[in-house]
Amino acid sequence: MRKKLRDKIRYGAGGLVLYSILLPVKLLPLNLLLWGGRCLGRLAYYVDRRHRKIGLENIKMALGKEKPPQELKRIIKENYCHIAQGGFEMLRVMEYGKRYAYLLAMEGKENLDKALAKRKGTIGIIGHIGNITLLLQKIVNEGYPASVIAKVPKDKRVARFMQQLRDRSNMGTVLPKPKSLAVKRALASLKREEVLIIPIDQNAGKEGVFVDFFGRPASAPAAPVVFAQRTGAPLVPMYIIREGRKRHRLIIEPEVPLVNTGDKEKDLITNTQRLTRVIERYVRKYPSQWWWMHNRWKSKPPEK
Question: What is the DSSP string of 148-212?
Fold first, then answer.
């Protein structure tokens, strides 16, 4: 009962904070907003003890053998700044659309065009690295019909606001629940030859498949590979990174060929592992831009 009350207060406060910052986001220059984001991020690092602990534990587990403790701490501090800046950028860019298109460069567009030329739709594989809201905006701005499988925030006001932003940018949304309806809508998106964007780097719980991620088993969504097996839609990794103060680059990689040995269960794990390796490569290259505060390894594989 107490936990439910705490969660209600926390999520309610989050919604109030979101709406309280909308006016300054609309009025202040972008450079000033980004500076404010860095300041807010630094403050959050010291105040948010719970998520700071999760982030430090995660990065120590993943990169502790490669980087000294002080470097890991610096990365998490920078990560807080990146996330805070990303929140302001998301609100500004989604609000004003193509006005900020010059800040979003694109590399590898030919890879997406080649995949879509197969006329089976395309499954865009992403992780929570960089500002993924800007990634979605860039895909739409370039004229690609697209939908994203997006989790629903627990605070209803935040969920409603995020949906309004996606609607405004002409980005379709496939909600993960109910599952049967989500599958139907995802397959319909591919049938319409859209880009169906699926994040694969967060804990998928019991419904996921277990793969190796930074040397530890992690539950990853099975949906991208299942959809590719069913439809023949190509799997195309993409990610966005911050470059300098306010510019970003969306990088689209070549299709990851689907392994097909005839053993669907084995192929599901093999292909999901290959996609997870791509995400791990991104994280190693840009560690301060990944979402370390998520409990990625929460689910444990069943005991044999």
Answer: EE-PPPSSHHHHHHHHHHHHHTT-EEE-S-SHHHHHHHHHHHHHTT-EEEEE-SS--GGGSEEEE
In whole angstroms, what is the distance from residue 60 CA to residue 58 CA?
5
For domain 2-289, the CATH architecture is 3-Layer(aba) Sandwich (3.40)
Q: Is the bond into 178 cis (omega within 30 degrees of 0)?
A: yes
Between 30-47 and 69-96, two packed helices, what is the crossing angle to 10 degrees? Answer: 140
Q: Domain map of the chain by residue range?
A: 2-289
Taking phi first (over 0 means left), then psi (-120 to 50 degrees means alpha), and beta for anything else, what does residue 50 get? alpha
**Please, which residues have CB within 8 angstroms of residue 167's CB and are 6 or more apart in sequence?**
173
pLDDT along the chain (304 residues), means of 10: 53 54 71 91 95 97 96 98 90 66 90 98 97 90 93 73 72 88 96 97 94 97 97 98 90 97 95 98 97 94 78
